[in-house]
Write a structure and sequence with these properties.
- Helices cover 1% and strands 50% of the residues.
- The chain has 522 residues and is an all-beta fold.
- The strands form 9 sheets. Strands 25, 27, 28, 30, 35, 36, 37 and 39 form an 8-stranded antiparallel β-sheet that branches. A 6-stranded antiparallel β-sheet has the order 29-38-31-32-33-34.
- The longest helix has 4 residues.
- The radius of gyration is 23 Å and the shape is globular.
């Protein structure tokens, strides 16, 4: 009998900090989204391998304020749980406090239908540096909330405490005493975070991430007879890390894990990890991976016999349930944008329309620019593959030399490519570390423009056509590492999308996009 297998990552591209829950035979998974709106992408599966997008949990401006959020602020490390017919999500929203610092609002929302609207948020805590909240529902009906936090007098840099407090589900408020649980397995453990509690055969297990979210990342575990502790660390910690394998592995820095069981009692772990390429660089950010778990002597063993996440893995013993393939091309002929599209920060103005010119996405030019901490006229989606091609066609005639419209490949406001019609030309600009340079330019012909980008690893090539398939190279094999975490810093993955701006000037202009196509290159 042939063993079924699957390929990791199960959700490629920018899907960090996965959290998972099960409701009957259905699995729901969420990830961080940082400064992008809508926030907290939601995925659904019936076999843990094939996932479909259900949109986002925080999809209304009144649910999520990302105004002035810096790159890699915003949504931090959500947790999803299902209890007694209701789904709950807790998450940290980090943003500026107006006094030169930041604040961390830890909020909770809920619903009985994950595909419908979620509630307005209630803030449970608003203390700086309290992040990575989680929920645990015990057999006695009590609900518990946990997170990590700094202490006033840190005994060493990176010290954090994991604390636990009861959550009153009727009042939606934290009540009672706060308990300190554990501060990690490694001596002088750095940044213990992402706590999750599980109860297995009457024992409470606390899973953490440690040592930061990059190459030294690790998953550790402790257990106790009481949810409030004391917790004893597993003598075999860490239960998952790749830091001992070296920098040149195909999968690096796994961590921030969540455990899930199947109806048959099998256990699996979802975790973030990255796929470096072109050297130790990764443009896709941190992605969601799946690996099997077994139990031995009262402790979980991650991927027995291998001890690591693998690119190709045996499939769960669940009936395969693939979803219909999403179209590679968006013709903008629906009533709403598809669930992949996101904005930078919360949109406070209506700058796009699918109705004003049917079959097109109209982007209005506004003074806001991609180089600013703002909400520009940008509609993007994550880069999902190392090798990919994306193209678009749009109608645009700038009224002056400041107006532009076209494509943007974005890591953050200081690190990106802009591939636009500006003035009389088609211009490709690179912004790296806040410094600008033009990589290529040609005269534009007419008002209809075709743009294409193809990436082979870190080699990004850009093409322009005045008529379909008559491509002219603007720049070939440009260095794509400007879109990597290692160059730009932060925690997000690269996005590609449609962009229009009047670059600081008032404007009545708009660009009409006929389609956007994105596909993996084989």
């Amino acid at each position: 009998m042939t063993t079924r297998t699957f390929n990791n990552p199960i959700i490629p591209g920018f899907t960090p900090d996965p959290s998972i829950c099960r409701a009957g035979d259905d699995y729901y998974l969420i990830t961080s989204s940082f400064e992008y709106f809508p926030g907290v992408p939601l995925f659904h599966s019936r076999d843990l391998v094939h996932w479909r997008s259900l949109g986002h949990i925080l999809d209304r401006p009144e649910q999520l304020d990302l105004d002035n959020a810096l790159p890699s602020q915003g949504i931090y490390a959500p947790t999803i749980r299902y209890h007694d017919g209701r789904f709950y999500m807790v998450v940290t929203v980090r943003g500026p406090d107006g006094q030169g610092g930041f604040r961390d609002d830890n909020i909770i929302v809920w619903t009985t239908d994950p595909e419908g609207d979620w509630s307005l948020p209630i803030t449970l805590t608003d203390q700086p540096a309290v992040i990575d909240p989680s929920l645990f529902f015990d057999d006695d009906g009590r609900a518990w909330y946990m997170a990590n936090a700094r202490v006033e007098d840190e005994p060493y840099p990176g010290y954090r405490d994991i604390w636990l407090q009861e959550l009153d589900l009727e009042a939606m408020a934290l009540v009672g005493e706060r308990y300190l649980l554990w501060n990690g397995a490694l001596k002088e453990a750095s940044a213990p975070e992402a706590p999750h509690i599980y109860k297995v055969d009457g024992t409470y297990y606390l899973v953490l991430a440690e040592a930061g979210t990059f190459h030294d990342h690790a998953v550790t575990i402790a257990r106790a007879d009481d949810v409030r502790g004391p917790y004893q660390g597993n003598p075999r910690n860490p239960i998952l890390t790749h830091r001992h394998l070296g920098l040149q592995q195909p999968i690096t820095n796994p961590g921030h894990a969540d455990l899930i069981d199947t109806p048959a009692g099998d256990w699996w772990m979802v975790a973030l990890a990255s796929r470096p390429y072109g050297g130790y660089f990764y443009n896709l950010g941190r992605e969601t991976f799946l690996t099997p778990v077994s139990w031995e002597e009262g402790w979980p063993v991650v991927n027995p016999g291998h001890g690591r996440i693998r690119m190709r893995e045996r499939a769960p013993d669940l009936a395969p349930h693939p979803w219909p393939t999403a179209p590679a091309c968006d013709h903008f002929d629906g009533d709403a944008l598809c669930s992949e599209w996101v904005f930078i920060r919360t949109p406070r103005q209506t700058f796009y329309s699918l109705a004003e010119r049917p079959g097109h996405l109209r982007l209005r030019l506004r003074p806001e620019q991609l180089t600013e901490i703002c909400n520009p006229s940008f509609v993007g989606r994550p880069q999902r593959h190392i090798d990919f091609a994306a193209r678009t066609a749009f109608d645009f005639a700038p009224r002056n030399d400041t107006e532009c419209a076209g494509l943007a490949l974005l890591q953050n406001h200081d690190n990106h490519f802009r591939f636009v019609r500006q003035g009389a030309d088609i211009v490709l600009s690179e912004r790296k570390g806040g410094e600008e340079r033009v990589l290529g330019a040609v005269p534009a012909a007419g008002e209809k423009h075709y743009l294409k980008v193809e990436a082979r690893g870190q080699a990004y090539s850009f093409y322009y056509a005045a008529f379909p398939e008559t491509w002219i190279p603007i720049a070939e094999n440009a260095d794509g590492r400007v879109l990597s975490t290692q160059v730009a810093g932060g925690f997000v993955g690269a996005h590609i999308g449609l962009y229009a701006s009047s670059n600081g000037q008032p404007s009545e202009s708009a660009a009409d996009y006929d389609y956007f196509e994105y596909a993996a290159l084989l």
